[in-house]
Specification:
The protein has a single domain, classed as YqgF/RNase H-like domain (Nucleotidyltransferase, domain 5). Helix content is 47%, strand content 22%. It has four helices and five strands, in the order βββαβαβαα. Helix 3 packs across helix 4. The protein is globular and about 30 Å long.
Length: 152
């Protein structure tokens, strides 16, 4: 029996990993959680949590935000993301891992979040969810590209 395609989006950072989940029909991304990395050099706790998510939601694909420079060159962050991708590949051999251009994702999230007001409480909420929201932005961009390419 073949599994239905199911996606998660990841926004990888030194201190956190934002996680978004694609709905079962593959059209809408929603925020799932932010994995806090107390010790950035220790990947095992993050890999373990991702393993739990992958099993719980029958994930078949990981869409990993790839923070390349505006001119298309690789930034230091992009290189670190590629190292993380390689760790994901070693740990999740049956999962397809796709790097997705995430240029301007954090700026888009910031702009969308602060459209109305920017009070202290809103800033605290933003700080605690920015990576999760960036993961939603990354995954939704990927899902939208899949939808528009299937119309062609």
């Amino acid at each position: 029996m073949k599994l239905k395609t199911r996606y998660i989006g990841l926004d990888y950072g030194d201190k956190t990993i934002g996680v978004a989940l694609g709905c079962p029909d593959g059209h809408v991304a929603t925020g799932l959680e932010t994995i806090r990395r107390a010790q950035p050099e220790a990947m095992r706790p993050s890999i373990n949590r991702l393993s739990e998510i992958i099993k719980a939601y029958s994930i078949t694909h990981i869409i990993l935000g790839h923070p390349i420079n505006m001119d298309g060159s690789l930034s230091y962050r992009a290189e670190k993301t590629q190292v993380f991708r390689d760790k994901l590949k070693r740990n999740f051999k049956s999962i397809e891992i796709i790097l997705w251009d995430e240029r301007l994702s954090t700026q888009a999230v910031t702009k969308a979040f602060f459209t109305n007001t920017a009070g202290k409480k809103q800033q605290e909420t933003y700080n605690s969810h920015v990576n999760e929201m960036a993961a939603v932005y990354i995954l939704q961009g990927f899902l939208d590209s899949m939808t528009s390419s299937s119309r062609v």
